[in-house]
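Quick log. Single chain, no ligands specified.
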Amino acid sequence: MAIPQSFIQELIARTDVVEIVGRYVQLKKGGANFMGLCPFHGEKSPSFSVSPAKQFYHCFGCGKNGNAISFLMDHAGMTFIEAVKDLAGQYGMVIPEEEGSPQDKARAQAQREKQNTLTSVLEKAGEAYKRGLKESQRAIQYFKGRGLSGEIAKQFGLGYAPEGWRSLASIFPQYDDPLLVESGLVILHEAENGGEEKRYDRFRDRVMFPIRNIKGECIGFGGRVLGDEKPKYLNSPETPVFSKGRELYGLFEARSSLREHGYALVTEGYMDVVALAQLGFPNAVATLGTASTNEHVQKLFRFTDAVVFSFDGDAAGRRAARKALDGALPFATDVRSIKFLFLPAEHDPDSFIRSYGKDAFADYVSKATPLSRFLIEAAQDGCDLSSAEGRARMSSQAKPLWSQLPDGALKLQLLSEIAQLVQLPSAELGSLWSGAGTKPAAEAPRRKREAAPASAPSFGDGMGDIPYFDDDEPAGFSEPWVPQEEWKKKTEWKKEGWTPRGKGDGKWEGKWPGKGGKFGNREARPSGPLAKLDSRPDLAARILLNHSELWDILSSEDHGLLCELPAPHGELFTWLESQLHEHGPVSRGTLKEEIVGHPAEDLVQRLTAGPVLASEPLRESGPELRDLLNRMLLDRIDARMRVLATDSANLAELRVLMDRKKELGKLLAASSIDA
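-> predicted structure:
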């Protein structure tokens, strides 16, 4: 679905960010802005500012910032499209659609209406189940026996489905309504041999757990028997509003706690989630009778940078963990933490905490197995590393796991560790896995870039197979890339008639040859040799416009840093984030087309003028961008520390900033050594 940029701008103009944020955060007027406790990190004194004039929020503690759309995405976990739809609905705006035939639009509208109707039906059933719990002492005693309070039951909307076959008939007088079957509440047995069709309630004599989407709408149910009957657990079937592979039980209730506790705890059942919330771990969620999927993990990382999967310590738990590993690997970037917790075979999280206490469980979580170690264990499974055959088998088992990792330091370290275990040099193992007879690109010597091939090439080790966008260079430009060490020296430029401009800005003056010169058929350039970009924001923007896929490997701190920059850079990065949320990584040419009419259009046109220069190969742009952002973060920390230094009450925050400054300094020192 393509939403016109003009509509996005109009929507933001109509939206009151104070009203939207105020629904989730208690705000108080403080001068021209409103202040409150940041919903994205734990704090005791307010550092979260919302500006009604700029329609922008910013936290001085963690750096989170944005507009009403980004707030719903970051805090409520919505996608860009979901956030726009939510705001448009609140303000009575109809979203125009640029693509699609009238028939497609009509079908989409009918689908939206169907989904709204189904959630209404499920909400009505949920209210009936809650009333059923109040009327059933047997169900109440079951929950009390599990240690649950009335407050927790209310928070999660727990209920009870009575024993009768058609109890919902008293709630829905039209029991033959097809919506009851489509929503999964009623089972229909078609008539056979002219007999009468049969309808009856899917959930009978079960305690009920409503499953909510991230907006809090009821989209399905889970039911558990009160005794030992089979099946013990029963979920709603797949419907137009519910998919087990995409939804997580308890995520709506846990969304704020995920940030407060710093991680998500993924368990195997709804009772685990509810019991953990009762026992002081409200950051727990659960899959719904299926293995953890890519979509589950991706959804969790909208709220937190750390996920801990909890499993029983038996063979079944290990198998489930192995499936979760496959779902998590593509999201294991260098700034995220993924761990696997294996409890003793005789315990689930609930029983473990009741036996050993909350602190013991928290300690167990902190010592959970990191993804890197679990990957090695999975690769080693069944391999005798004392034999060449066993080591070869480990290499074969490790390859598909390692290949799923996103490019970065973790992936390179694991390549080295696996290479040691299979007794091969890293270069040879990388070459073996890539199917080539040469060293992987990360260890190959730098070469002059040839003209772009017709097929989509790999950018080598460190960045994976990312498509080459053929509109990134103008037609007819095939000048080979020249490494920086081979660029002309100042003395050579002077010989050709160039002189420093004399303003101390590093620019030169001289006559540019234009067409027919060194760079082929291009218009004459208005500035001196190697016309430099003037600022770090310029450089960062240029890299991200040429390689938008790098945005996904940046941390939330990086995103905040870039989006809060003064106009036009901050506006550009905020726009770029919305584009990538909606469409994923796109080419420079596409971004140049989409930015037309936006306030940052002139900036983009300036930054993307001409071909992709020597510093633009993807495997080099990632480290270059990281170095730029680290320096920009240092500048921001220095500025913040100067403000805080005037008041001794800010000592605690100053210490945190000082630690972060030291950490960034070490990273910059290491990168300068590598360079």
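The radius of gyration is 29 Å.
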